[in-house]
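Propose amino acids for all 346 sites.
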C-alpha cells in the first residue's frame, strides 16, 4: 500500500445559492459539481467523493451517475462516494452500478458504504429506520462477497437469498471498499474484518480522541489476516485570507446545513459560540491556509492516517466560493501540510 499522504475532496451536493441568496436549480448544482471535480483533477488532487441524500437541501441523490459524468472529463482523479447508503439499497444493484463506473473510469472508482445518518431514504424506499443496523450488516456482507467476483450463495432476512449467483459486469480491476464510521468502535472492527479501508467521519469534537479507535482497526486487520489498508479522515472546512474572514463567511453556511439538521432532530441549537469552538479545538478546518494546514497536519500525525478528505462546501455556498475553496486547498493548504509533515519527519 502506498505510504504517501493523499489529499481528497468530499461534497454532499448541497444545493448552491447565488451571491444574492437565490437558490440555484438542482440541475445546475449537479453541473457545477462536475466542474468542481474537473478543477480538482487539474490541480492534482487525489480523490473526489459525493454523498447520497434524498432531501431538498441536497441535489445529489444518485452519486454514481454524476461520478460517471465526471469520469468522462477527468484523467487521474479517483472517484467515489461519501456515503452510499447500503442499508436502503440492494447490494446487487449497487455492485452493478459501481462495476460499470469502474469500467468507465478505467479503474479510478471506489465506494464508501455506510448505514447513513439521515432517515429520508428509509421512508422513501419502504424501510423501517429501526431495522437500520440489521439491514446494513446483512447487505455489507453480501456486497463484500459480490466484490470477490465469484458466484455467490447467500441467505439473509432482509432480501431474497442467492444460490451460486453470478453478477455482471465483471471487474477488470478491484473496486476499493471503504467503510464509513463515525464513532462506533464496533464499526471499526467490522471494517477490519472485511479488509475494507477505514473512512472516519469526524464532524464534532477533537479528532485526536479517535487515535486509539484507529489503532484498534489496524490491530484488527492483522488479527483477521488482512494487509494494511488506507485510513482516512473526512473534515469540513473553509479557507480564506484570514481566520476571521473564514469564520465570518462559513458560519452562516454551517448553520444553514449542520444547524438545520440539529434543529430538525430536536437537538440543542448549534450557536456561533459552538461553531467557533469547533473551529478552534474541534472538527472544523476553517481559517487561513496556515491555520487549516496546521490543523490537518496535527490530525494526520496524531491518527497516522494516509488520506485526508476535505469537505469543501456546505449549505448555501455559491459555486464560485466552492471553486475558490478547492483551489485554496490544493494550491495553498496541501503544500503547507506536506512541508509540515516533512519537517516533522526530519
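Proposal:
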Amino acid at each position: 500500500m502506498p505510504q504517501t499522504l493523499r489529499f481528497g475532496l468530499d461534497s454532499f451536493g448541497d444545493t448552491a445559492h447565488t451571491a444574492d441568496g437565490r437558490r440555484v436549480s438542482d440541475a445546475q448544482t449537479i453541473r457545477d459539481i462536475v466542474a468542481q471535480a474537473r478543477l480538482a483533477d487539474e490541480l492534482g488532487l487525489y480523490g473526489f467523493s459525493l454523498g447520497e441524500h434524498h432531501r431538498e437541501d441536497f441535489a445529489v441523490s444518485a452519486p454514481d451517475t454524476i461520478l460517471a459524468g465526471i469520469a468522462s472529463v477527468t484523467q487521474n482523479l479517483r472517484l467515489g462516494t461519501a456515503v452510499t447508503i447500503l442499508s436502503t439499497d440492494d447490494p446487487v444493484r449497487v455492485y452493478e452500478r459501481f462495476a460499470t463506473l469502474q469500467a468507465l473510469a478505467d479503474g479510478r472508482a471506489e465506494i464508501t458504504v455506510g448505514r447513513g445518518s439521515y432517515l429520508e431514504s428509509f421512508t422513501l424506499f419502504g424501510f423501517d429506520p429501526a431495522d437500520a443496523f440489521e439491514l446494513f450488516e446483512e447487505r455489507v456482507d453480501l456486497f463484500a462477497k459480490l466484490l470477490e467476483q465469484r458466484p455467490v450463495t447467500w441467505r439473509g432476512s432482509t432480501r431474497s437469498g442467492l444460490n451460486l449467483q453470478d453478477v455482471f459486469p465483471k471487474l477488470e480491476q478491484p473496486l476499493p471498499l471503504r467503510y464509513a464510521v463515525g464513532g462506533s468502535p464496533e464499526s471499526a472492527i467490522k471494517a477490519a474484518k472485511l479488509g475494507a479501508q477505514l473512512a472516519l467521519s469526524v464532524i464534532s469534537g477533537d479528532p485526536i480522541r479517535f487515535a486509539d479507535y484507529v489503532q484498534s482497526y489496524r490491530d484488527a486487520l492483522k488479527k483477521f489476516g488482512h494487509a494494511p489498508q488506507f485510513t482516512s479522515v473526512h473534515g469540513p472546512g473553509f479557507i480564506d485570507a484570514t481566520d476571521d474572514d473564514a469564520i465570518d463567511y462559513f458560519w452562516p453556511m454551517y448553520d444553514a446545513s449542520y444547524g438545520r439538521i440539529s434543529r430538525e432532530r430536536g437537538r440543542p441549537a448549534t450557536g456561533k459560540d459552538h461553531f467557533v469552538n469547533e473551529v478552534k479545538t474541534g472538527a472544523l478546518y476553517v481559517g487561513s491556509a496556515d491555520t487549516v494546514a496546521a490543523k490537518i497536519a496535527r490530525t494526520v500525525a496524531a491518527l497516522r492516517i494516509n488520506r485526508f478528505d476535505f469537505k469543501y462546501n456546505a449549505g448555501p455556498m455559491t459555486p464560485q466560493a466552492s471553486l475558490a475553496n478547492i483551489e485554496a486547498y490544493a494550491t495553498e493548504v496541501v503544500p503547507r501540510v506536506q512541508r509540515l509533515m516533512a519537517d516533522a519527519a526530519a
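The first strand starts at residue 6 and ends at 11. The chain has a mean pLDDT of 95.
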